[in-house]
Amino acid sequence: MIITKTSQAGTLESNDIVVKLMPNPEGTIQINLQSVVFKQFGKQIKALALQTLENHGITSCICDLDDKGALDYVIQARIESAIQRNL
Amino acid sequence: MKNTNNTKQITDSLQRHLQLKEELVSLKQSLYDQYQLPIISIQANYPGEQKLNGWSAYTVLTFAKQIETHFTILKKQLIFNELGPLVLMIIKDDPLALKQFAIQLENTHPLGRCVDIDVFVKDRPLSRMDYGIQERSCLVCKEIARECIITRKHSLHEVTQAFHTLLLSSLQSIEETIRFALLSECMLTSKFGLVTPLTQGSHHDMDIYTFIESIDTIVPYFKKVDDIDINQSLDSIFQELRRLGQDIEKVMFETTHGINAHKGAIFLFLMILMAQRLPTPLTQAIKHLAQPLKDDFKSMNKNSPLTEGERQYHQYQTLGVRGWVLNGGEPLLSQALNYYTSKPDSHHHQVNTLLLIMSKCEDSTIIKRSGIQGLKEFQKKALEAFENPQLWSSFESYCLKSKLSAGGAADIFALVLYLSHSQERSLL
């Protein structure tokens, strides 16, 4: 599935994350992460985001993540909401 | 199968939390758009799913008061939902000064680590990092809180205990302990017809705000018990207490516009506070202090009873709350206090303490609604629910259907919480 419009989920409150999905002209999945815990958990968060997108059959999108220290299941749920809102 | 259900439940409740969080941000956004002023939000860092309770409410309201005494509040809103109690305030002041004050409170107030005070401007909360200020430290180990949360370093139980310990050690006066006890009572969410933060129970004329405003009004008056001279006759002491009680009732009714939120609680707390000042053991002291109440029964006029309690005395010969204190609150007070203090504090245990009291208390509010037979049936059902939590919801429906609300049991529940956490002399 290719993301063809913009959708968003989440907040910038503590322990939450803002997920923004947009079309990617390159036709690949591109994840841009900003995180208050980038140094310690940046790699893990990116991997989790990629896996969640792929599990939902997404093959092309730009995924902007602005993370304020969200737990993994919150990250997953926010990405899923953003996907739902894109349908 | 059981596991699947469990996972599903957690997912639903997580979805609800996430949705509420988005709605909250939209609300802040629309308030900001309307007023063009910083919005402060105060929430407790209470862990786990059950975030509505006395612990979180006491924390949030304590800090709301701090902000109110230092800044000009244009509008204040108190919100209760699954995210916990929340205070939103629109403030006519510089956002930077506000954020600095908030950070100072979080860092230096004894309860500072239990609270999140956010300042919202334009489209986002101001962050400590914007000012290059050190991150919040963990409730349990003082490391950076964010990292402990993400790595799940501490168990839910450990964090909950740390919160409780901090709060209890911050209670510096009798009034603060009473405030905490009364808030814990009204914040309890499984209540069997009593008002909760989420429902009005069996009532149409009062809600959680009635109780919180009443608590705010009455609590400061309890320190006046200390002004009563104990070197006079017990009868004179009692008459002074009664006058103080009438004064407190008057301000309560003014605040609640005539609704009886805490009449019973005022009576019980005054009796206990005075008894704690007397040299005899607490139960004895309550009994001695209560002696003049016997005269109430003698002087009651059968043809024109004054109060509901007096009416019930004539109809059923029940002594109500007067009889209860004439017995020093026993045996129920010791039983409930023993039960409450026997286990680590939890929502479940608080609900069961309330049910235990409901199953034994001769509650005049229940007698008023459904007579002596009704009280017996209510007590029996409360006991069944105490023994089997699966019956909580059917007991709740029964109370709502019969419009029952055990206000007397709720007063004793608050008293038990006070005694359990009071630094003063207790029963145990």
Question: What does this protein structure show overall?
Answer:
The complex is a heterodimer of chains A (87) and B (428). Chain A has 87 residues and is of the alpha+beta class. Chain A has one domain (7-86): Ribosomal Protein S5, domain 2 (2-Layer Sandwich), CATH 3.30.230. Chain A has helices at residues 38-55, 72-86, and strands spanning 7-9, 17-22, 29-35, 61-67. Chain A has a four-stranded mixed sheet with strand order 1-2-4-3, covered by helices on one side. In chain A, α1 (38-55) links the parallel β3 (29-35) and β4. In chain A, α1 crosses α2. Chain B has 428 residues and is an alpha+beta fold. Chain B folds into two domains: 17-136, Alpha-Beta Plaits (2-Layer Sandwich); 173-421, Triphosphoribosyl-dephospho-CoA protein (Orthogonal Bundle), CATH 1.10.4200.10. Chain B has helices spanning 2-35, 54-70, 95-108, 145-150, 156-170, 174-187, 208-218, 234-256, 263-277, 282-290, 293-299, 308-316, 320-326, 332-342, 347-360, 364-387, 392-401, 407-421; strands spanning 39-44, 73-81, 84-91, 115-121, 124-125. Chain B has a five-stranded antiparallel sheet with strand order 2-3-1-4-5, sandwiched between helices. In chain B, α7 crosses α8. Residues 1-8 of chain B have low confidence and may be disordered. Chain A binds chain B through residues 9-16, 36-37, 40-41, 69, 71, 73-74, 77-78, 81, and chain B through 11, 14-15, 18, 21-22, 24-25, 116, 118, 124-125, 129, 146-147, 149-150.
